């Protein structure tokens, strides 16, 4: 058997986050951003849904049509101007000139002015369902992934920080899809069309200057935006830190009040917000710098092109209408190009927001079903621990060579001081963690080789710290069996000795319990948890300090109910108060991660060992829980 000191439990970003900053400081740069883009684009063409594929194709056709229409607008205007110049109509007065100018060309120009925006709106209307579908699918995927992550991650995570990461990441999805497809790519497509027309119709110099202006603009925008992205990351980190501190403080509202630390909490929050403020100021400064630079580059290109076009008009190489065409093309490109600067900045910022969520999705569960895992088949529900070693980290051993059996239909209790490893046994049984060495069996089946869902379906637990959903009492009891009838819910509540209390409330079973069940007392919450487990009706019961928050009278009533519920069921009881386990078939005394004594209540008393000493001390202290008693 390997020694505990050799154990190296999984404790890395691949399994959990010992350092939450790894969500922000992982792999960055172009490589990671391309991975994020690849992940996002996988939802653009959902293989399982032809209807969405058709919508994408239709949106792209509307996009191409809108760009062709946009290209026609300056050309039509140039033709109109050429037909209106005196040189083209020198023998006609103004009225006759208007008659000669094809009225259809003016009408067509008006149609293109209307149809361009209309096609863009059609494009957006067609694509919105695709974008929203992608957003919904990813949101559900992240939600499911968080539930698949191991207990270690959820014990170490910061709720406010993780929720903000998810919120920003989800909101970025549709934005990225929409603007990458409908702003970045179309702008370069339009540039190619314009340069091709300028080269074929006029002179390659016009196309060259136009291309150089646009590419310089894009290069400058991309380069400066990389600088801004670093500032954005700092803003996100500061924003998350401030949000985390705020939520953590509000969740511990009573503790803050107990110690009168309102001012201290406000100062902590202010320090976090100050960091965000400084980053926001730097962000605005960089935004101003990039806007000035973009304006200089583009307008320099416009001036150069217009000077060259004006010279060619004077030389007779171009008509006035051609001058208008060149200018119109520049303005036509500038509109999306100007938007490109904004869009690229926003895309980069959205990618920053997506990076953390993408990295979160990359965290693998510490515990997962093995390949070929089969459902647990429960016959008698015997539980067996065989030479189990376990540790949360290398420097602190929790369980050391723990072996015991809970026979089918019997009750075994585990007692011992806090830190002895009692609750760890329940977490191992539920397979929230895998043991370092040894095995845990149920009816001879290794729990690491069966599916987690079937394992947890077979076990019902009443935990020491009961946390309820912010919903009704009915919902919280029925959570064990979501399709339970009112009679089943009330029956479970009666066995848990809480039905009468619920009926006395103005809204009865529809009473809201508040966030984390804070509107109920500790005993009321625990009785709801007991009712929930009774409703689940599992073959194995795990009672982890199930009555620790109850007064003596209520505890006695619930103990009677639990004895009735546990009859003919395999029951594992974790207890502080020894008076609650005297009827157990076997009692295990856990001390420093090892089983120090075992036997029935009477046998352990007769041994006059650790258990007998605990029993005596509890009697003398009025049944006070013995966690304060030394090992």
Mean pLDDT: 79
Give the tally of structural domains. Answer: 3
Indicate the low-confidence ranges by residue numbers.
1-27, 623-631
Name of the level-1 CATH class of the largest domain: Mainly Alpha
What is the CA-based Rg, rounded?
Answer: 36 Å
With strands numbered from the N-terminus, the spatial order across the biggest sheet is: 6-7-8-3-9-10
Q: Estimate the strand proportion.
A: 5-15%
Q: By helix and strand content, what is the structural category? A: alpha/beta
Report the CATH topology name of the largest domain: ABC transporter transmembrane region fold
Name the helicity range: 55-70%
- Summed up, the helix count is 19
Q: What letter string, H or E per element, gives the SSE order?
A: HHHHHHHHHHEEEHEEHEHHHHEHEEEHH
**CATH homologous superfamily of the largest domain, by name?**
ABC transporter type 1, transmembrane domain
Name the assembly state.
Answer: single chain
Describe it:
With 631 residues, the chain is α/β, with parallel strands linked by helices. It folds into three domains: 32-361, ABC transporter type 1, transmembrane domain (ABC transporter transmembrane region fold, Up-down Bundle), CATH 1.20.1560.10; 370-458 and 540-547 and 570-631, P-loop containing nucleotide triphosphate hydrolases (Rossmann fold), CATH 3.40.50; 465-537, Rossmann fold, CATH 3.40.50.300. Helix content is 61%, strand content 10%. The protein contains 19 helices and ten strands. It has helices at 30-41, 50-84, 94-100, 103-148, 151-156, 159-201, 204-251, 253-258, 262-314, 320-361, 422-429, 452-457, 473-478, 486-495, 499-504, 522-536, 552-566, 601-607, 610-620, and strands spanning 383-393, 396-406, 411-415, 437-442, 445-446, 459-462, 540-544, 570-575, 586-591, 594-599. It has a six-stranded mixed sheet with strand order 6-7-8-3-9-10. Strands 2-1-4-5 form a four-stranded antiparallel sheet, covered by helices on one side. Helix 6 packs antiparallel against helix 10 (320-361). The longest helix has 53 residues, at 262-314. Residues 1-27 and 623-631 have low confidence and may be disordered.
